[in-house]
Amino acid sequence: MTRIVRTVAELRQHVRAWKAAGEHVALIPTMGALHDGHLSLIRLAQTKVQRTVASVFVNPKQFAPHEDFDAYPRGEARDAQLLETAGCDLLFAPSGAEMYPQGFATTINLTGVSEPLEGAARPQFFGGVATVVTKLLIQAEPDIAVFGEKDYQQLQVIRRVTRDLDLPVEIVGAPTARAEDGLALSSRNAYLSAGERAAAVALPNAMKAAIAAVRAGGRIDEAEAAGKAALAAAGFRQVDYFDFRDADDLSRLGPDALNEAKPRLLAAAWLGKTRLIDNMGF
Amino acid sequence: MTRIVRTVAELRQHVRAWKAAGEHVALIPTMGALHDGHLSLIRLAQTKVQRTVASVFVNPKQFAPHEDFDAYPRGEARDAQLLETAGCDLLFAPSGAEMYPQGFATTINLTGVSEPLEGAARPQFFGGVATVVTKLLIQAEPDIAVFGEKDYQQLQVIRRVTRDLDLPVEIVGAPTARAEDGLALSSRNAYLSAGERAAAVALPNAMKAAIAAVRAGGRIDEAEAAGKAALAAAGFRQVDYFDFRDADDLSRLGPDALNEAKPRLLAAAWLGKTRLIDNMGF
């Protein structure tokens, strides 16, 4: 079985021993409820370094009081089994008290890339993400850390905070893993009923159609409006955003995305009680 | 001469070479304008580790627009000479662009210990301090870092953020260095006129008297009021605070400080255009 450690001291003991032996180490931070998307991050890490560490911590600081912290799927035994199958060397599964001991008082906040999209919909989200990821990177001292492009804005926030704080780690983004019908893999897909799961494919389909329309010379605002209409028609009850943005800083694009250096389409929409997000490059 | 490096890459090259050779390393962060107080931090570090690195960076993020960032005393050649005399191994003197490159967007904020006293008088101060010190600790990767007790609340803020972010460094507090008459050494003492310098001794004297009064059974509130009155009589134009506080979290003390576990007296007051701070334990 993949070894499980619960304290920073044990985590560092393993990582430092590997590094002392000349091995390089990857950290793959997760909130558990592992699926093939997470395992693809581990496989990518294994092509780059000798040792992989997955962390599983459902971070209370990135959930607002009305969000799904309590309901978020948890199952350590299953997660550990999947990590074992993937050949992951170590699972770091700290308690809440190990991560945020009595008197904890520090928050890492970003301006800029953290503000639109997810930041607008979930005001405390990226402060919580930046704080816990910074802690995990300092705790584990990895050479690289791998994050999925599925959470694209999160990836850009983590790139920014890592650069800003001079953390000696390379941040690697991994392509979004998708189901056969194109839906991005997500732990929150477990919330979908069978009918909702069937409808969910409208999200990647609407995104592909919007990108194709803009590629064919269509206007960005019209492609965004058509995408939102397609989602509403498919049964999505609300679209938080369906936006073409600059791929680096997530600022709004000018009227013709194809003239921009790196456009990216990002979307978030609600199917019943489940909020799905996705993004695609050109 | 003490070697000067200006980039994080060069800094890490030196520190990592020392550590690879089995030597331990201390960082002494400063804003330059070095005096015997700073040199006492280096001497303390030299009793604990083999290698000492001083940083000199006047951090714009901890000054408000109306404060003395532009006027803050600077003189690298003199600083480097003093470090050479003290036997300091390396001076890290980064540019503003090296510390805060284009697009920098991250701030580290604390609640609790950062909020009263200096935090109340200077709302952006500790966010700036926590951000730059965290960066310096991540940049330099020292085994220990030494800070003067002169900036006592800053020391407690740094202890808290270091613990909260799991930075692998021991924070060492060094006793306040004082002039013969008792005035705490400070780079800002350079702002004092001869008359103000003579009057400034009223600050440590009023603090010693307040501690003696409380020790003799006097009431805290009366000792604080008497201290403020003494400073006004000595020509201080404003007292920001003159408070007995809990030495760990700087919370207000109950009516009898001597029954508290660890009381500490902290004061800040203005002499002309110069703001002096000091603190003393029991």
From TrEMBL, chains A, B:
Keywords: ATP-binding, Cytoplasm, Ligase, Nucleotide-binding, Pantothenate biosynthesis. Pathway: Cofactor biosynthesis; (R)-pantothenate biosynthesis; (R)-pantothenate from (R)-pantoate and beta-alanine: step 1/1. (R)-pantoate binds at residues 62, 154. Beta-alanine binds at residue 62. It catalyses: (R)-pantoate + beta-alanine + ATP = (R)-pantothenate + AMP + diphosphate + H(+). Pfam families: Pantoate_ligase. The active site is at 38 (proton donor). One of its GO terms (molecular function) is pantoate-beta-alanine ligase activity. It is found in: Cytoplasm. Its EC number is 6.3.2.1. ATP binds at residues 31-38, 148-151, 177, 185-188. It comes from the Bacteria. InterPro entries: Pantoate_ligase, Pantoate_ligase_C, Rossmann-like_a/b/a_fold. The reaction proceeds by a bi uni uni bi ping pong mechanism. Homodimer. Catalyzes the condensation of pantoate with beta-alanine in an ATP-dependent reaction via a pantoyl-adenylate intermediate. Belongs to the pantothenate synthetase family. This is Pantothenate synthetase. It comes from Caulobacter hibisci.
